[in-house]
Amino acid sequence: MSVRFKAVITTFLIGVYLLSSGVELHGQEDHHEEHPQEASHEHSPEDSHEPAHDEEFNAPEYILDHVSDSHDWHLLTKKDGHHVSIPLPVILYSKHSGLHMFMSGKIAHGHSHKGFQMGNGTIQLENRKGEMVEKGLKGKIVEMDEHGDLVEAGLPLDFSITKNVFMMFLSVVILLWVFLSLARSYKKRGVSEPKGLAGFIEPVIVFIEEDVAIPNIGEEKYARFMPYLLTVFFFILLNNLLGLIPIFPFGANVTGNIAVTMVLALCTFLITQFSSNKGHWQHVFATPGVPKPLLIIMIPVEIIGLITKPFALMIRLFANITAGHIIVLSLISMIFIFKSYFVALPAGVMVLFMDFIELLVAFLQAYIFTLLSALFIGMAMPEHHHD
Amino acid sequence: MTGTLAAIGAGLAVIGAGLGIGRIGGSAMDAIARQPEAAGKIQTAMIIAAALIEGAALFAIVVAMMG
Q: Which of A42, A159, A195, A323 has the most C-beta neighbours closer than 10 Å?
């Protein structure tokens, strides 16, 4: 395993380095130019009591803005404070006024369109128990009536093509293109020595099959789960890697979004439970070799264990990818906080270094998610599980 | 004040996870040095154990952040 593992990792790192290192540097320079203006623009209207020359850079706001999802794709802010961003489609369903579709440019920068605008501040909402809870509205679209009050029916349902959704469509297109063309070439040439793109992808697929699926699920049953494992591996890997590229059609933090990782973990959970056999449920509800009175404690623990496994999958991917992005953005923020060449240069070098570590993490997290999915699936079929 | 306590909690969780993963890594190194031919299996087991510890640490961090 180790030789192939190293070969796969090396091929990957070299390939990805060649693809993205120039881009990373380019993106960094972009940051140099664009962000002091952005910071100054954001601050001058809000904090008018501050002196105009005090261009304080709000690092946490800048970082969270880049890590989170949004309705438009902010590219840069010009010196006159004019924002350049690419609008994305907004699709809303409101109980009050039905279905709406428009481009997000219409509601950017505090504009209002058909009563819809970007939310600000907080709202008091009644939850199911009838208690009032406060909910932040930042980044959400709200609907206003003609008096300028929030519509009674609550927030509209938001099905917009946001940055993350757009990015997922893009990665689906890339994956389909890569794998359909691979399938075509295999059909045409048969299984011979892999060439071109196949030479790059085939070792990875063989690695997933021989080192992830077979040892954990077992020789007889693994084939059924290969489509899922490969899909999840390449989807996470591609999104991790595209998330590292800071220029326009890439750079959305898809695998660092907890909703995305939740759906991925939910898929693993459902597949695990539906492919499980009698032995799995016996293990949960009547653990073999455990005295009867102890089952009162063991059954709840086992049931919690069923849920914590996918929960940990969800949090692990989310936390690792988001943390990586936050570290890179923090290092870039240092440049604007200190405004000195003596900080900017080491920070740039550190960003490059972190990006290399992130390349490793991108591969490792995709691998760990796939490995643990295979492990959980294998564990739910205990009779055929052998080491 | 709550934020500070949450940060301390997250830090404690990271200390625990660091100790745990460090021990796993060290033991895996020992094991590989003793039996280099089993390196592949040891690596897989190491990553699984590290992932489980990391999971516990992430729980702690999430609780710290929510509390």
A: A42
Verify whether the Cβ–Cβ distance A315 to B39 is below 8 Å.
no
Chain B residues within 8 Å of chain A (Cβ atoms): 39-41, 43-44, 47-48, 51-52, 54-55, 58-59, 61-62
Distances in whole angstroms, Cα of residue A354 to Cα of each of A60, A196, A316, A338, B58: 19, 30, 19, 20, 21
- The SS3 of residue A142 is strand
Chain A, nearest residue to B47 by Cα: A368
Assess contact for A264 and A232: CB atoms under 8 A. Answer: yes
Instruction: Give A33's contacts (C-beta < 8 A, 6+ positions apart).
Output: A76
Query: Domains in chain B, please, with CATH?
Result: 2-66 (1.20.20.10)
Burial tier of A46 (Cβ tally within 10 Å: 0-12, 13-18, 19+):
exposed
pLDDT digits (tens, 9 = 90+) for A179-204: 998 888 888 887 777 777 888 888 89
- Is the complex ipTM higher than 0.85? no
Tell me the Cα Rg of chain B: 15
Rounded to a whole number of angstroms, the distance from the CA of B6 to the nearest CA of chain A is 16
> Is B55 close to A308, i.e. CB distance below 8 A?
yes
CB contact under 8 A, A371 and B58: no
Q: Which two tokens stand for residue A333?
A: 């923020």
Reported as type and span, the H/E element at residue A157 is strand A157-158
The amino acid at A382: P
Which stretches of A47-123 are DSSP H helices? 59-67
